[in-house]
Amino acid sequence: MRVSLRYQVLSGVLSVAAIAAVGAMTLPAGTTEWRPVSRPVAAPARPVAAPAQRLAAPTRQAAARKRLPAEISAAKPARLVTTTLDHTGRPIVTVREVTDKTEAQQASTALGVEVDGIVRALEAPTGTDTYRSRQWDLTTMRVPAAWERSTGAGVTVAVIDTGVDASHPDLAGRVLTGYDATTDQVGGSTDPQGHGTHVAGTVAALAGNGIGVAGVAPDVRILPVRVLGANGEGYDSDTAEGVVWAADHGADVINMSLGGTSQSSALTSAVAYARSKGVVVVAAAGNERQKGSPTSYPGADPGVIAVAATDSADRVASYSNAGGYVDVAAPGSAILSTYPTALASSGYASMSGTSMASPHVAALAALLVAARPGLTPDEVESALEDSAVDLGAAGKDNDFGYGRVDAVAALDKVAPEEKPTTTPTPTPTITPVPAKPTVTTDVTARTVTYGTRTSTTFKVTAGGEPWAAQPVSLCVSAAGGAWSCTAGKTTSTGTYTVARTATASFRVRLTASTASSTSTYTVKAGLAVARGAKKTLTVKVTGAAGQKLTVQRYVNKRWSTVKSYAATSTRTVTGLVSGGSYRVVLSSTSKVAGVTSQTVKA
């Protein structure tokens, strides 16, 4: 049911509450059987101990009558969400608009019928330290020490949120092609609101690249799923669809930094479906402590790891919800992370909320799955809870759950570090071994505009000397495709230079013997917006012809879409409000990252 959900933040950007997804597939052999949740429209909002059996149709319809608005007419239509199953048992969420109560009550074959509520962001004031010089959260969780054993390589984390700015240099090469549930199209790689990019940076910002911040799991892939619009609002049905889509498209972990005070059977069924496919589901616990800590969903849904927030002194945050559904806690106050450069020129922002705490736990779950593939969601949750630092009252409590997560201790639970042997060994016979080559590159990760001529130079050394005139293998992967390799030789100084015109995002890898190094290029579309004649803008695009392009106007402290069209190389946009503030958002493709223009006055 579309209920009112809010961003779990306390710092001037938003954290949000989401709903479960549509869709499902036949379960692979060996997966845990799941059953859909059936909840009548009138069911009270409360934690659910376990998925229930399907309701009989008369009970469902009677409940629907209780929950329907007092008046339904052509002038005041109602949006209803219906959850059904396809022939494989996959949950399907559909939305329809009805104009009379008789029509609204006709859902005899549905698992659940719910009034579609609004999801929205809850803004809160920011702290004074907007740009922090260090990340206290990683130190508190002992993340750098954990990187010696796992960085999340090979794991995909779905960020169900406002989208993710794939062109951000600190996320270069990490963001996959995702899905925009608000438009039912491939997308999600732009973020007109900012919250999703902040969450994604906490999970997977590049480490050791010399800029910005580091994520908890810097080698994971981010699967962006947009369920909220540029104004920070959306529908339960879109969030439910996003959860199922992520589960069907390779997500190992799902993060939902969002929540509301009413349950949705669509969401609960979608979470159950995702878990049946081995997906770990993590959500924010809520930011309404000052309002009595009303139970927040999906955090309180069965199988979801609900995360409370702590500050730099390991105290529960003043806004963080308390309740029996809280499983663990994680740093959530004054968290520095990535932010769209179109919204903050530095590309970074400090935010607070359980929205910021949740991705710390989702990323730690990814470290565990990477360290020991095949872990079930229950095993991951147990490892997080059993290894947490017990804070507050002894044992599990309503503020911290089982405690604040610890990366090293959690890894010890699933993949104990091997202790070196102390058995004396004979002194070995020393035989000179030829030095092995090492490979370095002058470009680790870079974002360039479509059409740019790139140059990457690799340097190969062995024993500190140039590996001159030696055979190497050069491989290129364009737009996430398969590697294409050719043989070559280093120069007399041990270098190898590759020139390439950037027409799609790509990776370049040079291998010398068993050593290799990779450079990642994110190619963004070219977008230039200028004021033309009065009430017009001139828009020029390169590298994304035919892709969706939206014109947005800033009114009442929010961006609203006023025009959409397929991108062409040059276009004059007319009919704008004189003196109005506008920007243009170009969506991503599988080859080229989208981009958001600067603000221009019409």
Describe this structure in words.
One of its GO terms (biological process) is proteolysis. Keywords: Hydrolase, Protease, Secreted, Serine protease, Signal. Belongs to the peptidase S8 family. GO terms for molecular function: serine-type endopeptidase activity. This is Type VII secretion-associated serine protease mycosin. This protein is an alpha+beta fold and about 600 residues long. It folds into three domains: about 135-415, Rossmann fold, CATH 3.40.50; about 435-525, Immunoglobulin-like; about 525-600, Immunoglobulin-like (Sandwich), CATH 2.60.40. The chain is built from ten helices and 34 strands. An eight-stranded mixed beta sheet has the order 8-7-9-6-11-13-14-15, with helices on both faces. Strand 7 (about 180) and strand 8 (about 185) form a beta hairpin. Helix 5 (about 195-205) packs parallel to helix 8 (about 355-370), helix 6 (about 235-250) packs parallel to helix 7 (about 265-275) and helix 9 packs across helix 10. The chain is globular and about 85 Å long. It starts with a strand and ends with a strand.
